[in-house]
Amino acid sequence: MSKINANRNLGRELATAVITFHETVARRLNMSAAESRCLGVLNDLEVATPGQLAQATGLTTGAITGIVDRLEKAGYARREANPDDRRSLLVRIRQPEKIGEILGPIYGSLSAAMKQMSGEYTPEQLEIIDRYLTQTIEVLKGETEKLKNR
């Protein structure tokens, strides 16, 4: 197998592993991966507009409406009036402690495993890996924008 094909397969395997991990985490919360992604963004921000959630997740505002409905029903979020804009609303995180109790051990374990793995590399190697991943993210964002604008 050529080096290029090996990289394409590794990229696909990485993407699949990341998606599978996030799907599994979402199931722990009895939600979809998209709902879990929104909850994660909302947990980081504490409060956001639906537009900010859409921007941060790459989902449409229509999809965000349904997701916020489900997060609200599950008790993880609540809508409230935006004091700065009567036409807008805010989505606020609820039960962050409960979310932390569920997700803390999961992401703590992942973080520890990743830290152990990164210990196998020299600082110079980690710099190259960091640069590669950063550039990969930028390429993916650029290609995503191209697809959105077609």
Structure in words:
By secondary structure, the protein is mainly α. The protein has 6 helices and 3 strands. Strands 1-3-2 form a 3-stranded antiparallel β-sheet. Strand 2 and strand 3 form a beta hairpin. Helix 2 (33-45) packs across helix 4 and helix 3 packs across helix 4. The protein is globular. It starts with a helix and ends with a helix. InterPro entries: HTH_MarR-typ, MarR/SlyA-like, WH-like_DNA-bd_sf, WH_DNA-bd_sf. One of its GO terms (biological process) is response to stress. Residues 7-138 form the HTH marR-type domain.
What labels describe this entry?
150 residues; mainly alpha; Arc Repressor Mutant, subunit A; three-stranded antiparallel sheet; 6 helices; 3 strands; 73% helix; 8% strand
Assigned CATH superfamily of the domain at 3-95: Winged helix-like DNA-binding domain superfamily/Winged helix DNA-binding domain
Radius of gyration, in angstroms, nearest whole number: 18 Å
CATH architecture of the domain at 3-95: Orthogonal Bundle
Helix share of residues?
A: over 70%
Q: Structural class of the helices, strands and pairings? A: mainly alpha
Report the uncertain regions.
Answer: none
SS element count, helices:
6
- What spatial form do the alpha-carbon principal axes imply? globular
Question: Which sequence of strands runs across the widest sheet?
Answer: 1-3-2
CATH class of the domain at 3-95: Mainly Alpha
End-to-end Cα distance: 34 Å
Q: How would you characterize the largest beta sheet? A: 3 strands, antiparallel
